[in-house]
Write a structure and sequence with these properties.
The protein has about 120 residues and is α+β, with helices and mostly antiparallel strands. It has helices spanning about 20-25, 45-55, 75-80, 105-110; strands at about 5-10, 15-20, 35-40, 45, 60-65, 95, 100-105. The protein contains 4 helices and 7 strands; from the N terminus they run ββαββαβαββα. Strand 1 and strand 2 form a beta hairpin. The longest helix has 10 residues, at about 45-55.
Length: about 120
């Protein structure tokens, strides 16, 4: 996974916003949605920032949204997906075989028995 992959997760909802342009973010601009990913730089770029990047680093391969399957998954997205739905401060780290459910330590304590886990 790319170390600089960025995404914005709205803390007040279950919505995961799109990838954010790292160049705009570096300049403290508003969060701008990324349209390209450079594999060599491991960075995301919006339509405005990809042109200077392309001129300076012409041999780099940038993947557009049509090739989004070649983009890495953002650490923030992974963290969001691993956050317990009920206990937002906890990460799921167990699987209850009785309920076929991912659980955080607090869920295990509140609702499940330890012998049912992997």
């Amino acid at each position: 996974m790319a170390a600089s992959a960025q995404s914005s997760v709205d803390q007040g909802s279950n919505e995961v916003k799109d990838y954010i342009c790292n160049a705009c973010e570096d300049q403290n601009n508003a969060e701008t949605s990324a349209d390209f990913y450079c594999k060599q730089c491991e960075r995301f770029y919006c339509g405005n920032c990809i042109d200077p990047h392309g001129k300076a680093l012409a041999k780099h391969t940038a993947f557009g949204r049509v090739d989004i399957d070649k983009w890495p998954v953002s650490k923030k997205v992974v963290d969001f997906l691993l956050t317990c739905y009920e206990h937002k401060d906890n990460k799921v780290d167990k699987f209850c075989t009785t309920h076929s459910q991912l659980c955080c330590p607090q869920c295990v304590s509140d609702y499940h028995r330890w012998r049912n886990f992997y």
